[in-house]
């Protein structure tokens, strides 16, 4: 009996052990099913996120292309601004050169005008001196000559003086027209 009881206890223990293993296996299978469902849900979420990312990649690519075009346009704008700066610098240089040439020309013209005025004044003084010399010569001749020639001599001096005066007036007209 003891053997029977021992065999029965051993059989009962075996049944309890097998039952515990079966229950543990069942729990493990349930958890494995949950893990599998979670994995499938994660796979679906990853696939959905992948689609969303693909949907975002296209606008991001377009945004990057637009930014690239704008940077290219800004680069061209800066290049154009640099060229405008160069053009302004060149124009400024040209204006300075023209101004320098113009200033030199004005200085030379003023010099010439001053010289022309001085020459004109010298001619006027020379003509006045010639008229005075002719007047003095005529008076000297008149003193040496008799009073009889005085009327003819006076006419000569008057003619010489009026000729000198008419040359002065002609010279003054020429000077005004040159100015």
Explain this structure to me?
It is a single chain. With 179 residues, this protein is mainly alpha-helical. It has two helices and no strands. It has helices spanning 2-144, 150-178. α1 (2-144) packs antiparallel against α2. The longest helix has 143 residues, at 2-144.
Précis, in short:
With 179 residues, this protein is mostly helical.
- State Rg: 64 Å
Amino- and carboxy-terminal Cα gap: 161 Å
Shape: rod-shaped
Q: On the 0-100 scale, what is the average pLDDT?
A: 77
List keywords for this structure.
179 residues; mainly alpha; rod-shaped; disordered C terminus
What is the strand and helix layout of this fold?
Layout: H1 2-144, H2 150-178
Helix pairs in contact: 1-2
